[in-house]
Amino acid sequence: MSFPRLHLSLSRTRNDFFCARDWPIPPSFLAGLAETGDVNTLELVLISPDVESVPETQKSPATTRAAWLPSDHAGRVSEKQLRLAAELGCSAIFVGDTALETMGAVPVYRVANYPGTLRPLDATMEKPFPLGLVGEGFHFGEPSDSDYPWRSQVVEPLMQTFPCLSFLSADRVHLQREYRAQCDLTALCGGVEGRFLPAFLEILLDGSVLVTERSEILEKLGFADEVNCLFITPENAVSKCAALLRDRVRLRQTQKNGRKLAARIMARSGAGIVRAWWLAQQEGRPFTSALEEDHRPRGVLDFLLRRR
Amino acid sequence: MIAPGTADLPRLLFVTGSTSGIEEYFYLSGVLPWVDGLRHHFQVEVVESAKELIPAAKRFTPDLVLFFGAKYKLLYDGPVQNFQALLGIPIAALTLMDGHSPAKQPFFDHAWKLGVEAVFTIDTGMREIAGDFADLVFYCPWFVNEAMCRDFGEKKVIPVALIGDGFVSTGKDWRYPWRRNVATRLRETFPVFSSPRPTRGYSHRMVGESYARMLNRSFIALGCGASRHIFMKKNLEIPASRSCLLTEPNDTLIHLGFRDMENCVFAEPDTVVEKCRHLLDHPDELQAITDRGRAFVLDQHSAKNRRVIADWLKLRQQKKPGERIIQPDVMGPLELAGADSERASVCLSSRAPFTVALREAVEAWRQGDFPAGETAAEAARDLLPFTMEPPLLLAYAALKKGSVAEALPPLRGILLRCIQWGAASPDPLVWAAYLLALHLAGNATQARTLSSTFPDVRHPVLDAVRQAINGAELAVNPSGATPSAVRPPWQNTSELQSFLEPLLAAVRQTPS
Fold first, then answer.
1. What are phi and psi for residue A284, nearest 5 degrees?
2. Which residues between 133 and 172 in chain A have a beta carbon less than 8 angstroms from any beta carbon of chain B?
3. What is the DSSP pairing of strand B137-139 with strand B118-121?
4. Is the pLDDT reported for residue B294 higher than 60?
5. How far apart are CA B342 and CA B323, in angstroms?
6. Could you give the angle at which helices B389-400 and B493-509 cross, rounded to 10 degrees?
7. What is the DSSP letter of B481?
8. Angstrom distance (rounded) from CA B344 to CA B77
9. I want to staple A289 with a disulfide (CB 3.0 to 4.6 A). Which of A109, B14, B191, B237 is the partner?
10. Measured between CB atoms, does A196 come within 8 Å of chain B?
């Protein structure tokens, strides 16, 4: 089977407007898209969160154009990214924000992934810390954080029981991954809107067990409690974490299962999703992403309605 | 068998009792080092079983018998008898207990009945709150456990370490006010490793060498003296593990040779972030302080430096009738003082939050300002909820203002806690206050019945209460008064008697 050859605007746009200079474009992503093919028929543009505008000259595509809008570290894709994608005349938009709801004419596909394949950090990295509380919202002894209520609720029982590495700074995201990779367990959640965070995949790939809040979207993606992650509540946080930390064999197996899950998610929703969409377009079939098949959008409104 | 090179050392029979019930972290970091450390100054024979004590004493012919109390009580569980009278040699005790522990009264009562002449404490604030036992107390602070804490050569990956209790306190837990005040600021600013003390509910593995290695991975680690500004072993474990000690400044640390930006770092809550940032931004300076700190504790705070028990034994053997042994300086030698001399042993925690609150309560009480005394006693109680002195003062205040119902719960609380921690008999002052409160609350019959219990517990204040309740004179106690472990400092017996006299008069006027 031959894939359409993609015209990779990325390499060109990286140096001008679509993608800010410091936004990492994983080489594996480019490689994944540049599969064999013979027709220069699809242009894929990557619009990172910090791109401000697009030049007029780029607004009329000569060929079919799709956009990939990666989320920021909090799992959000901005209205601005969506607007720029529309201005560029894209036929489809792939977003890394799993809580995004749009009503526009252009189909939007939510993708629980980075635009590419992540690589695990050094596999030999030690894990001296039993538990990591790395990220915003893990504030101890303060009123509940409105963006991350679960984090606010679990921080007290966890910190009062386990040796923890905590790092609350939001402005040194690159360090967060390194710290999480040194923990046996890492607590993190998708916030009040239950977003899928890029860090979830990093945590799994780097061999830590993701300790998080149960959510429909995670279960849809294959997360299973005590198999490849831990779903905890403030009430059972201590007992579930303690049980896993005590059982080193089960801990290692859960870490291993987590890595496998990460690989599965990336294979399913990485560059392959663009190919799958394109093939469906070519063959005139309807297309649904893994998250869209039988899954309602879960934006703010949806969240509030479901809570009610 | 006598270890090589120790034949000239005095002989110590170290009665540890059974240590099997002690938590692993405390056994490794707190108990084991003493068993080894005493061998620098004594030929040591260890006795774990109570029934071995007398045979070992006959076989080993010790110069000193030292009973060991871990965190709470003496671990010796054999017959309670005066071993000084029985063996004819000095008897002492070594305790790792905090002075604010509810086990204090049971511990001192037990030690006193065993004929103990000196109590060596790691708690460098014990003298201030040991009541009538204060003169028996000698400080023998923690020393570096070199078997556990060293430079392992670990890669430094933790900017700031907050290891131990108090960094994650909430609600009314103010045992570690400084830790609580600095922890949030540090967590909001730096990557921080925190580890609570292991509990029986979840006994994590960050103990012993694992704990020391974690310190070794840390650039900066925090210690303090808690609400009583005592010297804690963390203040040695951090520098010995080649991490920079950052701590609250207090008189005890200064007395023991710690100096800001020289061998450690002192910081207040307002300056802690700024100081940490400065040090992390200036790694050479941080490294120099860390290295000087390590050299300092190894040189000044090793087991070899802790000579106080051996020195006490030497002076005890030289002491003439009427002379007292005093400890003017924790780092210096003990001295002999004449009976009339005003020279006293050093007190180090007089400016600690708990001590300040307790002293304010007593001063207000002395001046008759009971509302102020009550407020100060409540503040002291909030800092250390299980300590006995604040509730005793609150009970006195309640009795004075006629609120007998308010006096009974704190007194019952003290008695119950003492029983829970192994007390064989009550503290004489607490028992006196309880009997008095019971009677004034209208339970005269019960008060009279209880007043005849614990006949061996005698004290001028208790005797006066018993006489008032029973309307009869008591025989003079030939063995003297039972010391109180909870008599607040700065409050003497005659003041207490004057204070209670109007209440006793009311009891005497009550028809039987």
1. 70, 25
2. 139-142, 156, 159-169
3. parallel
4. yes
5. 12
6. 40
7. P
8. 34
9. A109
10. no
